[in-house]
Amino acid sequence: MFFKRKKRPVPELIRPSAVLLIECPGKRLYASPEDTPAAKAFFSLLGSEPLSVSLSREGALAVGALQKPLPADGACAAAKPGDLVLCGDGRLALCLEACGGPFTRLARIGSEKTDALLASLAGGETPVRFSLEWSE
């Protein structure tokens, strides 16, 4: 006697996604990546190890130097608070206030967290650590 087996549903593949973790003194902030060549290059830098950058406040931005240049397209004419951008001169910047300029957006911090970002970067030079966290 033979029994028919019921077909089991095939499990759906779960693809892990990367989220950018930004760590300032006393703060952990998460940012969603943009879909640009510069953002992909930045995230590939973080694939092997975290990146530490000293950011200094310059007007509406907290700016720091990168050791490796990233491809910039300057497609973003304005930045909002919480944007992680690549400036026209190749420096990495966190936008603290709305501002204009040629920017390449790399990632965006949720708007509810920008006050925490402003407070932690208000002083002089601030060490900031960028790394990836993977989720399913």
Question: How does this structure look, described?
Answer:
With 136 residues, this protein is mainly beta. Strand 3 and strand 4 form a beta hairpin. It has a single domain (19-135), classed as Cyclophilin, CATH 2.40.100. It has an eight-stranded antiparallel barrel with strand order 1-2-8-6-7-4-3-9. The mean pLDDT is 82. It is elongated. The chain contains two helices and nine strands.
Summarize the structure.
It contains 2 helices and 9 strands, in the order ββαββββββαβ. With 136 residues, it is mainly beta.
* Beta-strand content: 35-45%
Question: Mean pLDDT, nearest integer?
Answer: 82
What order do the helices and strands follow? EEHEEEEEEHE
Q: Uncertain segments of ≥5 residues (pLDDT<50)?
A: none
The N- and C-terminal alpha carbons lie at a distance of 43 Å
Helix content: 10-25%
Helix tally equals: 2
Task: Note the main sheet.
Answer: 8 strands, antiparallel, barrel
Number of domains: 1
Shape: elongated
- Count of DSSP strands: 9
Question: CATH topology, anyone?
Answer: Cyclophilin
Strand order of the largest sheet: 1-2-8-6-7-4-3-9
CATH level 1 class label: Mainly Beta
CATH architecture: Beta Barrel
Radius of gyration: 19 Å
Structural class designation: mainly beta
Fold blueprint:
Elements: E1 17-24, E2 27-33, H1 37-46, E3 51-58, E4 61-64, E5 76-79, E6 83-87, E7 92-95, E8 99-109, H2 114-120, E9 126-135
Antiparallel strand pairs: 1-2, 1-9, 2-8, 3-4, 3-9, 4-7, 5-8, 6-7, 6-8
